[in-house]
Amino acid sequence: MIRFFCGRFLSVIFSLVFLIASFLLQAADWSADLPTHTRPNMYRGLFTPLAGEGIKQLILRLGDTANQIETKIPNLPDLSELIEIQAAEAHCSTILYASDFGTSGTVIDQPGYYILCDDVAWIASDGSSAITTATNHVTIDLNNHAIYQTNKGFVSNVNGITINQGIHDVTIKNGTLSDLTTYGITGTGDNKNITIENVLIENPGDGGINFNPVSASGCIGLTISSC
Question: Of these four, 56, 113, 122, 134, which has the most CB atoms within 10 Å of its CB?
Fold first, then answer.
């Protein structure tokens, strides 16, 4: 009786194993039997021209060729920065990165709309400005970023943004200038139609905003708002 029971039990176990194995083998062949149009699609999407420009900017920022990009993953900008880059490109703007600022700052010598896409921890040299505006018809959009000098007290005559003599039609807006040795924003003479809006100037050495016209008809049309 015991031998009969054991034989029946083993028979049931072998039958279950056979059924499970058959099911798994059949399931493995199902995907091969599916019509082509119902198989999973490996479509990865298409790059729009704008997205392509964003990828190009990434490669330029990394300073490497495309096939080296995988080794630089920790240095990729986050999503918010990618959005800033593409928004700037969509408005035909010139993008300013922290890497554009040497110890003597950066010089804007072409009219246009300039947008900052990084916070800038700036190591200044004597007599320098983070941004020097050397041409007319310029907008500097700090884009809610900050330029802050990191070596205040070690150098002299350092400004955040300097507008050269005689330059006109300049707008500076939307950001922070911090810890400058001398002035946050300064004009060097007879500047006209200057607009400064929504700019926070923190802890300047001599003053926040300074314009020193060289003639009686010097600084005309200076507008400062929400600063």
Answer: 122
Rounded to two decimals, the pTM is 0.62
Question: Please, how many CA atoms are within 13 Å of residue 165, restricted to the half-sphere of its CB?
Answer: 5
The residue whose two tokens read 């593409």 is: 86
pLDDT at 194 > cutoff 70: yes
Residue-wise pLDDT tens digits, 150-174: 999 899 999 999 999 989 999 999 9
DSSP helix/strand/coil, 28:
helix
| Gap between the terminal Cα atoms of the chain | 98
What is the Cβ-side half-sphere exposure of residue 23, based on CA atoms within 13 angstroms?
6
Structure tokens at 49: 């021209």
pLDDT of residue 18: 57
Cβ–Cβ contacts within 10 Å for residue 136, how many? 16
- DSSP class of 69: G
Q: Copy the structure tokens of residue 51.
A: 């997205």
Pairing of strands 138-149, 120-122: parallel
Task: With both helix axes pointing from N to C terminus, report the angle between 49-62 and 79-90 in degrees, rounded to the nearest 10.
Answer: 120
State residue 118's pLDDT score: 87
